[in-house]
Predict the structure.
Amino acid sequence: MRQCSRRIFLKCGLGAYSASALIPPLSARPVMPYYKAVFDERFEEARAFATQATARVTPTVTIRGDVTNLFFNDLDLRWKLGPVWLIGFTTSASLFCLQLLARDRGMRLRFCRTKPNMKAVLCVLDGASPRDRMRMHLPSSDPSDLILWIIAPSIRASENEIAIV
Amino acid sequence: LSSLPPGVNRKDFQDAIAQFQAAVGKEWVFTSDEDIDLYRDSYSPFWNEPEDPVPSAALAPDGVEQVQQIVRIANKYKIPLWTVSTGKNLAYGGSAPRLSGSVVLDLKRMNRILEVNDRNHYALVEPGVSYFDLYRYT
């Protein structure tokens, strides 16, 4: 077997260094192509979720229960271009509204979990792709229940027109 | 999940669906459980019970001509239609049909604002235009 010369060794070393400089560390890379992470800033757990989302380079957007501004000034305009992935940590009432608005633009609720612990939140943020196919999510008995959720392009839309985030 | 229109056999229904697809495009004819689920009453007290009205399919035309074709096909096979604009009147059943097995005629794609007349204070819009759409336009 041919021995590695000093020149090749240096070349490889420089190459590896350049590559590592271009690729950000794992914790700073977005693991899922979420357009936005929506969180309700009134709740400490949701704020913690937003911090973790930011650490994963997912843009965050804040609400305080009402999703009107988020829809009118952001999502409605973005969804006109095509369906996108959204993740959120909000009350069930906010989720219900967003889900209804999203469904007409080729998106569906793909996952939701009521009152998840931080470990579950991190798993989902880190790309553990939940396979639960959710049926229409009804508002829970307590509309202030916090829910971790993912809204994503429907399979039908995925086949045709997923927009580039 | 979905049920057949009352008095319509499976073969006729499948023929009708094929004709609906030819009229509005395959991607705008909804028959899967996932899609049908969206045309149910979210607040139905009869959820998953026999009284819960469930459509057999939903169609989303994008213009008057397609609506005309749909009505002709529905009339030919005696399939009841249930029309919704955006189906967001949740307290009144959303987009769920009154009669189980109806085909929902979803007009959300007909969302063009045809005229806003400042002088005479009226707006002429297609049925899928929402308050937000009109607000943004004006």
Summary: Residues 16-30, 160-165 of chain A have pLDDT under 50 and may be disordered. The radius of gyration of chain A is 20 Å. The helical segments of chain A are 6-22, 44-55, 68-79, 92-103, 118-125, 155-160.
